[in-house]
Each structure stands twice: as C-alpha cells, then as structure tokens.
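Subject: design request, 116 residues
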C-alpha cells in the first residue's frame, strides 16, 4: 500500500524559513517524479515545485522561484521543500505528490501559516 506523509509544517513569521519533508513507502521511490503543491483557503490547489526521478531537474512556480528549493533523497525515500523568505501569501496546506505515467499519489497535507 502506497503511503505518503508530510512533516514540518507550522507557524512562522514573515521572512522566516521552514523545511517540509515527505516520506514515502510502498512503492519504488526512484521510479516517480515528485512535486509539492499547495492550497490556500478558497483557492484551487496549485503547483509549487517539482523534481525528476533522479533529481537532475527541478522546476518552480514563479511565485516561489528563488525562495524555495526542492530536493530528494532516493536512498531514504524522501523529498524535501526548503522554504525561505516566507510571505503571508505562502500560507496554505502543502501537499506532497508522486507521479509516473500511470499513477499519482498524494499525501494528506501539512499546514504552513506565515504571520505578518
């Protein structure tokens, strides 16, 4: 059974940093591309950052480029999102996502709240 669990959410002041982690089990981790998405209250879920299976390529939404960094540890079955220079508009539930050509999996999400 595939399971994804996010860790590291919380309350942080604007300008601060936070690191999210996502642990995966029940699948061949390095067969999947991975991403982070977020959903703010009243808004649709949006893409934040993505990383390819071997970690060789990453991409980011314009709103987080230069502030967030995605990375993965294939030996440890984990993906990370380092968030810096946080802004109140980064407040959202953050979701870990794994996908290949046939399947996509989501974690339950972790709340990030940035106070002004």
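Subject: RE: design request

Done. Sequence follows.
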């Amino acid at each position: 059974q595939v399971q994804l669990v996010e860790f590291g959410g919380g309350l942080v002041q604007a300008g601060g940093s936070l690191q999210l982690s996502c642990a995966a089990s029940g699948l061949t981790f390095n067969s999947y591309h991975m991403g982070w998405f977020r959903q703010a209250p009243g808004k649709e879920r949006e893409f934040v950052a993505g990383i390819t299976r071997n970690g060789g390529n990453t991409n980011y939404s314009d709103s987080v480029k230069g502030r967030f960094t995605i990375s993965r540890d294939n030996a440890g079955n984990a993906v990370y999102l380092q968030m810096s220079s946080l802004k109140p508009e980064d407040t959202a539930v953050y979701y870990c996502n794994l996908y290949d050509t046939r399947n996509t999996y989501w974690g339950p999400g972790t709340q990030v709240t940035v106070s002004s």
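The chain has a mean pLDDT of 96.
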